User: Which sequence fits this backbone?
């Protein structure tokens, strides 16, 4: 099955590039509300499921034991830009469990463009705290310390931490996460390829807590609420996830992942959304998620305008002139 | 027409993302040697045709008047990484025509990752000389000064410089470059969408000089030879264009462009190649051009191994572990 073109990239009046993809929208009872493209093909969700991966942090009692509020929980669900606020918060989360960045096994990388320039100007180099996943990994480490398992090797499949996460992922999405579906994410933890529709169902469950026990229900609510309350700590300055969640505070949860994945949830509709751009382009995935939310949400004129703007990002020349734009196709109407 | 998947991105053993595209290989007589996908669809060549756009610099006598050698001519055809060597050479080209960076109308942007860090550490910010197109623009400005036209507005359609370039593009590719095909490139000059097969034919002509007058023939030879002799000045440290041209010195000319375009020429076969990845991904275009060259060139084992390695770039985690790879599909065999 060939997925349809969902986003075109215009230069002047001509289509320069095009992005295909698949999108699943489900309710928490497993009803398909809207699907386009092949939503049964296994997809690695990458960072788009960090909120589910953070369930053990809350359910284990670690988040309460260390006094984590919305910012810490948002950072545990984040792919952050490595700005000083992110780095310091990850450091403080680790400190509460008696750890420092040497415990992180995610590796280091230079952060977002602006943060990289600031770091280089200060004569510094990035460490693992600057890794966009350091909040998630700090959450993993805090969970290990709190429940009393040795944290070394916590990124490996088979470690108690990854088994807790796998159990949560399987329970929430309803999809088997076996060795055959497994590969390694950029931050060294396992990532499992399962159908998009399972992630859509999973986020519908996360946002409605349908079928969850009381502990899981409370944890899911806290995590999604924390992300919607503190979107800067989920991403960073200028990022699409922040703009989308700030466009309608408390009404939109979104989380992007590498290789063009998005998961989202709309509390007032009780819907979960999962999508992937076939070619892995983040620019197209951002346009797709904004367009789908604009389609589904009962938006007033102001909100609709904000979402449409995010779905039609301009292409600019190096002098800042608008020379083109992204454009969702009719398939997304 | 839906173009075929030409490159897959594997994570572990699972295909995570996929890139479609079209490729045209032509000889200088206009014979199609190999085509895949829709090679008649108009495509913006972006920076992949800089060697053709540099013809007026040589043909006008400007390159000789200012004493430009291989490095300057390579930089005039370059999308460089903004490393100090590139910046200084562009500055010296402008100085020979009595100009400095204030004459450049390409705009400024932060250069490649490593060059950005070096610049920020030095407490500096980029100027137009760091723009990846500054060598091309310096060539444009030198041409203006040498032939005696006012350089202000040299980036605009209708300016004498852009008309010289348009004439060269039309003559070499055989395709009309009209207002309907025109949009604006990232560096503010016009870019025209014409069929891939026209670019393939154009580069077959550039490398064989078939049908060219003696001045154009000499200019084409000098420009392609300069790029193959000084590939670092066409791109920069670690770039695919450099690796490809260094893999078989004098036997491979390649030039990438934004949004997943490549033009290439193989002197010993007299062939021109043009390709575009549908979605604009540079990683896939690099794999495609390496795979096509491996297919066409009569390569010994060492060269074949180099090309296959470039066509199958690894995907690494943040700790440098190989967790996946790009893989050309059977369509490229």
Assistant:
């Amino acid at each position: 099955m060939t997925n349809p073109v969902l986003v075109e990239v215009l230069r002047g009046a001509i289509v320069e590039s095009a992005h295909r993809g698949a999108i699943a929208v489900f309710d928490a009872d497993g009803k398909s509300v809207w699907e386009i493209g092949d939503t049964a093909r296994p997809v690695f969700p990458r960072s788009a499921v960090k909120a589910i991966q953070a369930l053990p942090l809350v359910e284990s009692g670690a988040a309460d034991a260390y006094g984590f509020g919305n910012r810490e929980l948002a950072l545990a669900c984040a792919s952050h830009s490595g700005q000083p606020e992110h780095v310091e918060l990850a450091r403080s989360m680790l400190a509460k469990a008696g750890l420092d960045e040497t415990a992180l096994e995610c590796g280091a990388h230079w952060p977002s463009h602006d943060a990289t320039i600031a770091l280089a100007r200060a004569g510094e180099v990035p460490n693992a705290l600057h890794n966009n996943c350091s909040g998630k990994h700090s959450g993993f480490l805090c969970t290990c310390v709190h429940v009393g398992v040795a944290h070394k090797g916590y990124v490996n499949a088979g470690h108690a931490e990854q088994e807790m996460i796998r159990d949560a992922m399987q329970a929430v999405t309803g999809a088997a996460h076996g060795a055959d579906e497994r590969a390694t994410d950029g931050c060294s933890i396992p990532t499992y390829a399962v159908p998009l529709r399972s992630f859509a169902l999973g986020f519908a469950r996360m946002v409605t807590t349908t079928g969850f026990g009381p502990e899981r229900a409370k944890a899911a609510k806290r995590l999604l609420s924390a992300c919607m309350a503190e979107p800067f700590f989920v991403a960073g300055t200028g990022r699409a996830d922040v703009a989308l969640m700030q466009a309608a505070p408390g009404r939109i949860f979104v989380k992007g992942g590498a290789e063009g994945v998005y998961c989202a949830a709309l509390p007032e509709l009780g819907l979960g959304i999962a999508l992937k751009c076939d070619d892995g382009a983040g620019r197209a995935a951002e346009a797709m998620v904004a367009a789908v939310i604009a389609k589904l949400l009962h938006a007033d004129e102001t909100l609709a305008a904000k979402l449409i703007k995010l779905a039609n990002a301009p292409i600019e020349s190096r002098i800042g002139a608008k020379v083109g734009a992204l454009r969702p196709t009719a398939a997304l109407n």
